[in-house]
């Protein structure tokens, strides 16, 4: 990097001017040295021996030397003022063109066939832009075009060749010259530059001349009438924060003679971002004479990339927040629904619980259960499902579970306990709904009194067969949190030794593409099939049985968390204390 220019000064437009001025001095010194070495004429006069006349040049040879395809046309003016056109010949470039596009058409190989009516030779040309171009060139004497010209050539084998080019017409003495550029190359180049929002320019350092391509002003945000900006002008258009970068690129190109590129923000309204790629144009064996550059408008791509990065950052933050909430929810769930000891054995019950999380990781659900002995000598058994997932569901689940644990100590009937839970859920908010089974087991009568609040019916497994426990005649109660002041009715079921009651949340039976009755019937078949050989004794055996049921029911069809609470009736070791059964 040029140590003579400070970092701050590189941000000023005059830094680029100074860089170019220094290079212009080197170019002049190089040219002066070359002129001294070659000993060329100092006055610019033509040497006397060279002024002997111009060698003759035949018109046909001159026509064939043209690098573009051309037809020589002789205009014929009729008495009524109408024009007709006779084909007089074609040049070598036209014959080379014919070798590529229509090699089978023999007339293309006759450079001077004599006068032939042009539109007899090319009938479809008469409906193209060619007649108008020829007529305007003849009458005005000014070159015409370019214009899109299209006609067809019929080959001897029956194929039709489409000729489509940019056509020009001009007077040539008493004749007309029809030329074209193959394939609309200039138009295609302009279209490509417009669609790619790219352009090119060449800046001469010796005389400040600038040559720019089509669309350069539009890419730079200038009016179409604005002159092509020089390199100092480009620096002045650049945001001050990027001028140092532009200076570094020009330094690499001009002084180090190597290609370089950068991104620049142009201070237009609205601002735009361009990619500037530059390479040196050298004098043979001498210093860099000019800078050739390509400028591409990348504003849209940069904005899209920035939006994508912002969206990705937002998604990452959302995932991080979700993981944080999920971790809190999991921790809270583990705190409020721990694994429990088999404390109900003295009351004649074996209990086990199985929890199957949602396989789609939609979030920790609101499933909960409760199984504990009460001071009255009875057992509280409950299972519930707070609607939703995540922290909100776990919070409501915790409220209901702890509320029931405290309310159960009042020794009020399960109908009353359920009504109180409904009051708790209603006070929590409109979206705080839940389902539940609330039951109390009375060891002396081996009686299970239970209330359903919108929850799936428990399953009774007895002697290898399974059936649903029936609701009271009034039907199941409403979900918790729906209607304040709702009353509930209990159902009484007498259990025999060996009976297993399976309470579960709806995640066990809800399956994709099925209905609840079908899923419940499937559950009964699974429960019966797995119980045929008997359910292994002990709490561990009961838990293994519950896991087998959950595994058979879940598979690829599980759409929610599933919790199972299994209760097996056992002989009561001693008569428990307690008051009247309720």
Q: Quick one: overall form?
A: elongated
* Structural class assignment: alpha+beta
In total, how many beta strands? 21
* Number of helical elements: 14
- Biggest sheet character: 6 strands, antiparallel
Distance between the termini: 94 Å
- The value of Rg in angstroms is 47 Å
The average pLDDT score comes to 83
Description:
This protein is of the alpha+beta class and 582 residues long. It is built from 14 helices and 21 strands. It has helices at 13-38, 59-64, 92-101, 118-121, 130-140, 185-196, 216-219, 231-237, 240-254, 299-336, 391-407, 414-428, 516-531, 538-554, and strands at residues 70-77, 83-90, 116-117, 144-154, 160-172, 175-182, 198-204, 210-212, 260-266, 272-282, 288-297, 349-356, 365-373, 379-389, 434-442, 447-453, 459-462, 465-468, 491-494, 500-504, 562-569. A six-stranded antiparallel beta sheet has the order 3-2-1-6-5-4, sandwiched between helices. The protein has a five-stranded antiparallel beta sheet with strand order 8-7-11-10-9, with helices on both faces. Strand 1 and strand 2 (83-90) form a beta hairpin. Helix 1 runs antiparallel to helix 8 (231-237), helix 10 (299-336) packs parallel to helix 11 and helix 13 (516-531) crosses helix 14 (538-554). The radius of gyration is 47 Å and the shape is elongated. 32% of the residues are buried. The model is unreliable at 577-581 (pLDDT under 50).
């Amino acid at each position: 990097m040029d140590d003579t220019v400070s970092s701050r000064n590189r941000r000023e437009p005059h830094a680029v001017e100074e860089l170019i001025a220094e290079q212009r001095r080197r170019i002049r010194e190089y040219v002066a040295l070359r002129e001294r070495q070659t000993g060329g004429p100092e006055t610019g006069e033509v040497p006397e021996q060279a002024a002997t006349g111009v060698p003759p040049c035949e018109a046909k040879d001159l026509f064939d030397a043209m690098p573009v395809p051309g037809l020589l046309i002789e205009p014929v003016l009729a008495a009524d003022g109408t024009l007709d056109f006779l084909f007089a010949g074609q040049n070598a470039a036209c014959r080379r063109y014919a070798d590529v596009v229509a090699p089978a058409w023999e007339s293309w190989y006759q450079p001077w066939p004599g006068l032939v009516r042009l539109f007899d030779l090319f009938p479809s040309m008469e409906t193209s832009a060619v007649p108008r171009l020829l007529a305007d060139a003849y009458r005005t004497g000014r070159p015409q075009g370019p214009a899109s010209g299209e006609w067809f050539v019929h080959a001897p084998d029956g194929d039709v060749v489409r000729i489509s080019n940019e056509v020009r017409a001009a007077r040539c003495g008493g004749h007309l010259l029809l030329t074209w550029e193959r394939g609309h190359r200039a138009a295609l180049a302009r279209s490509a530059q417009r669609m790619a929002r790219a352009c090119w320019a060449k800046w001469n350092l010796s005389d400040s001349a600038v040559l720019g391509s089509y669309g350069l002003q539009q890419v730079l945000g200038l009016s179409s009438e604005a002159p092509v900006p020089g390199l100092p002008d480009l620096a002045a258009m650049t945001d001050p924060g990027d001028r140092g970068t532009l200076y570094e690129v020009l330094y690499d190109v001009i002084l180090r003679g190597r290609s370089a590129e950068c991104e620049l923000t142009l201070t237009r309204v609205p601002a735009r971002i361009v990619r500037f790629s530059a390479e040196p144009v050298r004098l043979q064996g001498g210093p860099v004479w000019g800078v050739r550059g390509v400028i591409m408008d990348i504003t849209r791509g940069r904005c899209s990339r920035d939006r994508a990065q912002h969206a990705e950052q937002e998604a990452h933050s959302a995932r991080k927040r979700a993981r944080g909430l999920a971790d809190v929810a999991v921790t809270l769930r583990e705190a409020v629904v721990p694994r429990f000891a088999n404390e109900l054995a003295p009351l004649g019950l074996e209990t086990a619980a199985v929890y199957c999380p949602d396989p789609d990781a939609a979030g920790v659900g609101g499933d909960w259960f409760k199984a504990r002995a009460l001071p009255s000598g009875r057992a509280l058994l409950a299972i519930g499902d707070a609607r939703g997932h995540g922290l909100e569901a776990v919070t409501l689940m915790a409220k209901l579970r702890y509320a029931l644990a405290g309310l159960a100590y009042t020794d009020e009937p399960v109908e009353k306990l359920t009504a109180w839970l409904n009051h708790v859920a209603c006070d929590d908010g409109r979206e705080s709904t839940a389902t539940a089974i609330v039951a109390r087991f009375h060891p002396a009568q081996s009686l299970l009194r239970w209330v359903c609040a919108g929850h799936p019916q428990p399953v009774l497994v007895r002697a290898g067969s399974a059936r649903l426990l029936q609701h009271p005649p009034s039907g199941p109660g409403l979900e918790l949190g729906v209607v304040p002041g709702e009353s509930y009715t209990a159902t009484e079921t007498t259990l025999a030794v060996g009976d297993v009651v399976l309470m579960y949340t709806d995640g066990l039976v809800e399956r994709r593409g099925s209905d609840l009755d079908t899923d419940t019937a499937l559950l009964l078949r699974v429960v019966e099939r797995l119980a045929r050989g008997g359910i292994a004794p002990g709490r561990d055996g009961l838990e293994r049985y519950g896991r087998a049921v959950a595994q058979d029911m879940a598979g690829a069809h599980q759409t929610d968390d599933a919790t199972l609470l299994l209760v097996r009736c056992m002989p009561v070791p001693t008569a428990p204390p307690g008051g009247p059964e309720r």
